[in-house]
Amino acid sequence: MVNIRAGFKHVVNLSRLIVWLQGSNDIEQLSTCEFRVLNRQTSQIRSPKMQGLMTKKQSPKPRATKSTAKSASAATPDAGARDWIDAELEDSFDEELELEIDDHRAPFDVKDLMRKRKKSEIDRKTYFHELFRLQTELIKLQDWVQHTGYRLVVVFEGRDAAGKGGVIKRITQRLNPRVCRVVALPAPTDREKNQWYFQRYVPYLPAAGEMVLFDRSWYNRAGVERVMGFASPDQVEEFFHDVPEFERMLARSGTKLIKYWFSITDEEQQLRFLMRIHDPMKQWKLSPMDLQSRVRWEQYTKAKEEMLERTNIPEAPWYIVEGNDKKRARLNCIQHLLDQVPYDEIPHDPIDLPDRVFNPKYERKVLPKHLYVKKVY
Which of 28, 118, 280, 377 has minimal CB crowding within 10 Å? Predict the structure, then answer.
């Protein structure tokens, strides 16, 4: 376990942070341009216009002295654009690193268990490079879905703490929430319990040009509701009879349905539950149903096996994601999702930022200080 607070005092950019998180001793060997190491690896992620700003040639200028070189460089528009793009990219990478740090922040009580845990088979450099590449493809998918009016539903099911939420976060991280929505419904109300079972899910299905990710879905009936006794045997049997036709109706209406089951081992689930129990920042993820899933592991296994057998139809087959290695599971799932949709890159007209219109008679009002958020940091 690394000391996050102390470490950040010595970590000033992305590349150094990656090495630091890996526990490498080569931090001091990094050059002053270490951020460009990852910049080069992610150059394919930038749009052609951004790459043009980064590589635009400057006309020859008189040779500058050492005393004036720094100020002259800072004054050039291209240098300013380059610095701005670097800052924007670094801020974007930092967002992912915050999630990465959270994954590796182990409470004191489970440090010994964490040492025995098998490390990811993908090194961080490869993981970040591939993740950003896949997220770029997801943006292309989003544009294509909007442009063509495609309707896409992705169902995420699986063992508790198997990594469904982590994958959903990485999928939606850089997408438009008005196009790609996440649906995570709470327990049904008394009124919903008396409705047609699928009725509470139908309002959340996508319209043309939308993607919907279900974090748990109508398959609750075949899993938690069945194992915990919230649904009678007759209701479960009725579900198995109805769900294939319900999903075929979606397919006939032009809605693409993709179903994932996230699988982890008994030992890995135990470790992740212990992490949540001892980590105040993750305890909200635990529910009484999660704890019961440990007690009823074999019952859930039998329920899962029957569910996969009886609901695996050609129009909406199941795909199993092995989740013990979180990084591999995220990359494999996102790549597979992209492979299921015949999307293409949609050409866009060039976007030019219009000049601001200045009114010489306009005077900006001075707002009262009490309206501003206090600058604590």
Answer: 377
